[in-house]
Amino acid sequence: MIRQRDLGNDVAERKAAVHRLIRNKAITLGGNMPAKIYGTLSCGSGKKMKAENRVFFHNEAEAIAAGYRPCGHCLRAKYLKWKNALF
After folding, report:
1. pTM summary value
2. What is the architecture, at CATH level 2, of domain 2-86?
3. How far apart are CA 17 and CA 64, in angstroms?
């Protein structure tokens, strides 16, 4: 798990670091730390969160191992499967 706030000293530096990680396929998913939700990097819900709450994962297994659940918007089928497993 990589915290966005740890990727640089200012917004431009962090943005460049995120783009580099995406190009290198080092990250494929984003997450919201307080809510413990992960989703695709293109998810509209994820793009609205505060940068200090944003984390990145290399893959889904890493996100699940960290205790995160799928996003109900961009990963709807996985979210419903996760939700149904609770009940």
Report:
1. 0.92
2. 3-Layer(aba) Sandwich (3.40)
3. 24
Residues 6 or more apart from 42 whose CB is under 8 A from it? 74
Nearest CA to 51 among 85, 18, 86?
Answer: 18
Chain center to CA of 40: 7
Domain boundaries defined on the chain: 2-86
CA dihedral (69, 2, 50, 82) in degrees, to 10, reads: 0
66 near 58, Cβ under 8 Å?
no
What does the pLDDT look like over 39-76, one tens digit per residue?
Answer: 999 999 888 899 999 999 999 999 999 999 999 999 99
